[in-house]
Write a structure and sequence with these properties.
Length: 231
C-alpha cells in the first residue's frame, strides 16, 4: 500500500499534466453588498468557458461556467442571487421611505387635527433620515392624499395608501430581521397612540402595515397591545 504522501504527490503531478481552466468574460458591473467584505463594493458580473488543459495549455472545451459576481475588493466569486440584497446605502433609503409612508398612513387614518400625533410622526420621520421633515409638511401631504382619493379619515386604510404601503414595505421586509419589522410597526403604533387610544381606522392601518411587513396577525395584536403599555 502506497504511503498517503505518495498518493498525494501523484495526484498533484497528474493535476499539473491534465486539468481544467475557466476563462472569465465581464458582461456587466455595478455596486453590491459583498457578503465576503461585509460592505458596499463594486462588482463585475462574469460568464465563463471551461477548457480541458494539457500541461497548462487549453485543448478542449468543457462547457460554460457562471454567471458569477466577482467582488472588485476581495476577488471572491458569488452566485448572482447576492445582487438581490440591497446595498447599505439603498437599504437606508428604503427604510427611510418606509417610515415616511407608514407615518402618513397612520396620520391619514387618525386625522391631522392632533398636534401631538403630528409631532410624534415628524420626529419619527426625521430620525429615519428626513432631517427637514416638519409637522406642517406631513399634514399637507395627508390632506393632499385625502383630496386626491376622496377618502375620509374615519374610513379604513384606503386602497391607495394600502398600495403605497405594500410598494414601500414589500421590497424591504425580506431584508429586515424580525426585530426590525416589529420595531417599524411599534413606531407606527406610537404615532397612533400619541393622541389617545387606537381608533378603528388606525387599527386597520396598523394591521395593513403588519401584513406588509409579514408579521402574523397574532403578533400584530401582541405588539399593538405592548405599545399601549408604558415602558
Amino acid at each position: 500500500m502506497l504511503p498517503v504522501r505518495g498518493r498525494d504527490d501523484r495526484a498533484a503531478k497528474a493535476a499539473r499534466i491534465l486539468g481544467t481552466r475557466t476563462a472569465w468574460t465581464p458582461v456587466g458591473d455595478g455596486e453590491f453588498f459583498c457578503p465576503g467584505c461585509g460592505g458596499d463594493r463594486n462588482y463585475q458580473r462574469l460568464t465563463g468557458r471551461r477548457r480541458l488543459t494539457l500541461l497548462g495549455v487549453p485543448v478542449l472545451p468543457r462547457g460554460t461556467a457562471g454567471p458569477v459576481v466577482e467582488c472588485a475588493a476581495c476577488g471572491h466569486h458569488f452566485g448572482t442571487e447576492v445582487l438581490d440584497h440591497p446595498t447599505t446605502r439603498r437599504f437606508s433609503v428604503m427604510l427611510r421611505d418606509a417610515v415616511h409612508t407608514v407615518a402618513l398612513a397612520v396620520l391619514a387614518a387618525g386625522g391631522t387635527s392632533s398636534r401631538t400625533a403630528l409631532e410624534t410622526a415628524a420626529a419619527t420621520v426625521r430620525a429615519a433620515g428626513f432631517a427637514e421633515c416638519t409637522e406642517d409638511q406631513l399634514a399637507a401631504l395627508v390632506d393632499a392624499l385625502a383630496a386626491d382619493t376622496g377618502r375620509y379619515f374615519e374610513q379604513p386604510c384606503g386602497a391607495g395608501l394600502t398600495i403605497e404601503l405594500h410598494e414601500s414595505l414589500d421590497p424591504l421586509a425580506p431584508h429586515l430581521a424580525p426585530a426590525g419589522r416589529e420595531s417599524l410597526l411599534l413606531q407606527a403604533a406610537r404615532i397612533a397612540l400619541a393622541d389617545g387610544p387606537y381608533t378603528p381606522a388606525e387599527r386597520d392601518a396598523l394591521a395593513t402595515v403588519g401584513a406588509a411587513l409579514t408579521i402574523c396577525s397574532d403578533d400584530v395584536t401582541r405588539l399593538l397591545a405592548a405599545a399601549r403599555t408604558p415602558s
